[in-house]
Amino acid sequence: MTLAVTSTHTPVRDRVTWISYVQYSFFTWFMYSFGATGALLRDE
């Protein structure tokens, strides 16, 4: 019995998908960069 995958489906990334990626990237960058400075600000 041979299991062969013949479908080469690639996901479609349209404008909405790329905007979502950028928004998520900026959000996580902001949250993690602020989280690192939170300990320093707490000490003051």
Report on this model:
By secondary structure, this protein is an all-alpha fold. The protein is built from 1 helix and no strands. The termini are far apart. The protein is elongated, with a radius of gyration of 21 Å.
- Radius of gyration over alpha carbons? 21 Å
Nearest-integer average pLDDT = 82
Helices and strands: which structural class? mainly alpha
Number of helices: 1
Summarize the SSE layout with pairings.
Elements: H1 15-43
Please name the defining characteristics of this protein:
44 residues, mainly alpha, 66% helix, 0% strand
Compose a concise summary of this entry.
It contains one helix and no strands.
